[in-house]
TrEMBL record:
Top-level taxon: Archaea
Protein's name according to its UniProt entry: Conjugative plasmid protein (PARN3)
Species of provenance: Acidianus manzaensis
Keywords (A to Z) from UniProt: Membrane, Transmembrane, Transmembrane helix
Residue spans crossing the bilayer: 57-85, 91-113
Amino acid sequence: MIRQFNLKSGEIIPINDLVHYRQLISSKGIAVIRGLYFAAPDGIYIAKNRGKRAGKVFGEIGGVFAILFLLIAVAFGFFTIGVYWISDVPLYAKIFGSVIGIAISAAAIYGIIKIAKKMIKIAREPDIIEGELVAPWSMIKNIVVTDVTTENTNPTLAGAINPRLMDVGMFRVLLFNGGEIDIWPVFDPYNKLNYIKNKFNLAFY
């Protein structure tokens, strides 16, 4: 069963990670290449529309860079006007240069307005995640935390100097039919498991 959830509603809890760009450098590799799971009122789901959400994030980033580029174009347009008017050129050349500068600035400002409106529209849209139910709570016998290690979750040069340490482990979901689902990496796994139990009123063994 596939359902849609609004990430901003607080009705679901990301288990290993729903943020596609977070990476964890460790012996197990990078989190982004693994399945992304979340807990919902009726069970555990696996995310299905990661590509769409990644496209939305990259679109927002691209919009920011586009606006910065257009702001430079606006400044260049006004700079062009100033250069022509302080230069020792005929009046018609100054007018021609001013028209070019105004056209550049006006086009850039129009582009900024269009992009800004689109970004505002995207920001106001609900952040939807699609998920496929992999195990309803009625099928889950227990969730065991295993393979807990302390990892540096800031895999950058700054993180090497000032590491951000956090317990990282794996959820082993035990099913009544004998099956198992391994979910990794789970950040701060013990607290996350307690939070899931309390939020959805679960009573595992």
